[in-house]
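Late entry, written up from scratch paper. The run itself happened at the end of the previous shift, but nothing got recorded in the book at the time, so transcribing now.
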Amino acid sequence: MTICEVFGMPSRAGRISLWLLVLAGALLASPAIGQVDGRPLDPVADADDWLLPKRWGEVRYGLTVREPIDSLRLLQPRDGSLVRWIVPGEISVSLEVHQGLMADRTMTHKVEHGDGVAGAAGGGAQEALQPLRLDALVRDLTAAIETAGAREVVNTGLHDWVEIGDYIGYINYFVIHPRGEDTRPWLHGIALLKIDDLNVIVMRLECQPQATELGINTFETMLHSIELEPAHEVLDRLRGWMHNGENFLNATTQDDRLSAMLPDQLFRVREMVPGDGGRIDEIDIGYTRIWQRYQDNDYYRRTLAQLREDNAEAKLEGVDSFRVHGNALVMQTFLRAQGSEISRLQETVESVEGGGISEVWNLKTELRQPGDQRFGRDEGLWVETGIRDDIHLSEATTINRIEVIREGTPPRQITDYVLARERDPERRLRFPSARPDAAPAGNLDALQWQTPERAYLSQVDAMLVPALLPADETQTYGFFVYHAESSSLAIRLMRVEPQPDGGKVVFIRPTIDMAEQAMVYNAQGELVSWFFPDGRSMVRTTREELARIWRVRLPHD
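Output as recorded:
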């Protein structure tokens, strides 16, 4: 018995005829209405007409999908999806995953302990698993599309349930009429595929009316090409990578860390943007400074003395006020786009003495906009303070925990919002997004987790370890890490590819759900460039070059 029979739905041929009538009415004003009759009767059998044999894969879910012919793949685009394919003819297909509460935390616990109990490594016992109901998610996503602010949204209402292997899916189409007299309608397709109780794949189609036939055929054949590995195979592979990471951390000494610390590294921050005639240009949008050092009593004494040269009552501030003796990382970033300026400061220290405070960090991001513009209720200020320390539950029980206080708008949302304006100054998206969560909003959160017992990567080691990984073999390492931009305890993967010159490229997934970044190291273990999937990059530079580009004189200390 098929899903259609279970739900009492008409046959596929009947649904196609009905669907064509509805869509024809919705696109009546479009000159391309005659092209909608190409919807594939059998997306599985007809796949070769629309898709390449090549597959794109996502390791978190063991998911692969065939890619469209003549498409451009964008990893981790700024709309929040995992991947987006751009197909000639103004067609866009994206893929994302919606998660139930504690989906990531359940995965973390399964990898560490081999079971599905989500508590020790993933959050408080007061939180319970909240599965995703497919019908509820369909209603929520449909409501979000219909209230996206367009002049008119036509819901075809043909809730088409499909079977893909052992999984149940859903597909529907909307015709969006933007505001304005001269605007053209566009087609928004949405498909959902339930992986398990906590994860649902969401695919979206956006295309102009003249590309309806190609868009729909590509979209539906991609949906039916999805394949998923058995969950136990995905977990076994992740556990193997985590074992590699655990062994590496256990073998890494303080002397190793000190050898990899480099003071005052300078980088240009660049971004790829559309140029004239379809050309892609690369422009400077800012710079980054990175300090790595060991902080002891002499450091704190010297720093306090410098402060008191100007103010006799001055006190140590930020992470320095904790006076932690250990390895420190400071990253300072300045970005500018469309007149807006983003300043970001990250300070973190990890103790090497043991006991008491294990780690402390402070992140501050501030957005300044030109003129009198304001950015949300918090005016673009985002601050996070984190601490990892031991707490005593009883005389016999002590655990190491991570506690975070976060206030304001997360920095990734601020950065993406501003840089998106740089790419499209008038904010006219080529493929208008129906997602209502595109605008950032301020909030206040207090979070805590129990620190994973093995393969945990501190905020300092998150920068040191890529430089220390062996450059003579291709290998993947997994770690548990606190990821500030998503405020989550996550799994981080680092994949090493040796280079002929003795250097290496370390491909990093900041969290297992995010696309890879690439950190390029020379044979001396120095970071020379850092590439991000959204088109940004960091390239090593000098004070003289930054002075020429930005007219700034950066002090050495």
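The first strand starts at residue 51 and ends at 58.
(Scratch paper discarded after transcription.)
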